[in-house]
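Below is how a single chain appears once it has passed through the pipeline. First comes the sequence as given, then the structure the pipeline wrote out for it. We keep one example in the README because the format questions we get most often are answered faster by looking than by reading.
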Amino acid sequence: MYNRKTDEELDCGVRVAFKIFGGKWKLCIIDAINKGIVRPTDIHRSIASATLRVIEIQLAELLFYGVVEKSAEDIYPKKSEYKLTPFGETILPLLTQIDKWGTVHSDFVKQRQDELQDAE
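Resulting structure:
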C-alpha cells in the first residue's frame, strides 16, 4: 500500500470516501462480491479490463480498511474468498444509486466517447 509523505486531509467526507473507495476498480470489486463472485480469479474474469494483480492490490486495500474479509481454505492450491463486512455493506445503497445513474446516462457517455475517438 502506498504511504504518503505528507498528511492527508481526512476531515472532508468526500476525501474519506475516496480514500477507501477511490481505486479504479474498487466499486466494481464490491459489486462483484455483492453479486456472489468471491474468488479473486472470478472477480478478475468479471472485470476483464483490470489485471489480476490490480484486483489483488485493491482487494488488499479493501481488506485493510475493513470493507471486505478474507477466508482461505487450508488446501493446495489455496482458495481465497472474500465477503463484504457489515461496514462494507454500508456502501451498497450508494453503489446502487451510482449504478442507476450510470445506466440512465450511459448512452450520453457512449456518444461522447465516440465523438472523442472521431476527433483523434
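Strands lie at 68-73, 79-84.

See the next section for the split statistics.
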